[in-house]
Amino acid sequence: MTATTLWPVLDHAHTALRSVLADLTPADLARPTPCTEWTVTQVLQHAAGDQRAYAAAITGHGGPTENPFDPSGTLDGTPTALVEPALVASADAFATVAADAPTPTPLPHGALPAPVAAGAAALDAAVHAWDVAVATGRPSPLDDALAADLLPVARAIVEPLRQYGAYAAALDPAPGDGPSAELLRYLGRDPRWTP
């Protein structure tokens, strides 16, 4: 089931995250990721937990069942069974948000303008889709169009989050960077990362 919202950037990011779930093997789930302390399983647990946290901030219920920043690494069921309900909950919650409404978020920022809040949830889903893709040798689902939409959101919310360890220090831009590479470097990720 694919829920859609008034927020194309969120729908695009959710599609990116869904695209990396199919056919993951047990060996894939144990692979290291650009999130240096986490395996693919832990990144998926974190991503699912964050989407549930955005949904719960809006609806007041249905938050993550474990701390998204301390994922267990133990998966009961399939990656899709873990992530899909979280994406649906997030999309359903954002479908209730008016375009001009301040929107509660789980971020230290608190409520944000609705487009920024939806973009923040999208940023989380999209970057973790990239993490899983590169960790498992798949093509990146973080295309330049999505990255270009996410860059302004990243620049609006990421700096205060670095102090909490949510993002590493930004990397220097490189000649020829397109929007995807620019976004990844801004988030402290090396676009050429390999396991």
TrEMBL record:
Give GO MF terms, alphabetically: metal ion binding
InterPro entries from the UniProt entry: CHP03086, DinB/YfiT-like, Maleyloyr_isom, MDMPI_metal-binding
Question: What are the residue boundaries of the Mycothiol-dependent maleylpyruvate isomerase metal-binding domain, all occurrences included?
Answer: 10-133
Per the record, the domain of life is Bacteria
What SUPFAM superfamilies has UniProt attached to this entry?
DinB/YfiT-like putative metalloenzymes
Under Pfam families, the record lists: MDMPI_N
Q: What is this protein called?
A: Mycothiol-dependent maleylpyruvate isomerase metal-binding domain-containing protein
* Organism (species): Cellulomonas chitinilytica
Identify the taxonomic lineage of the organism of origin.
Bacteria, Bacillati, Actinomycetota, Actinomycetes, Micrococcales
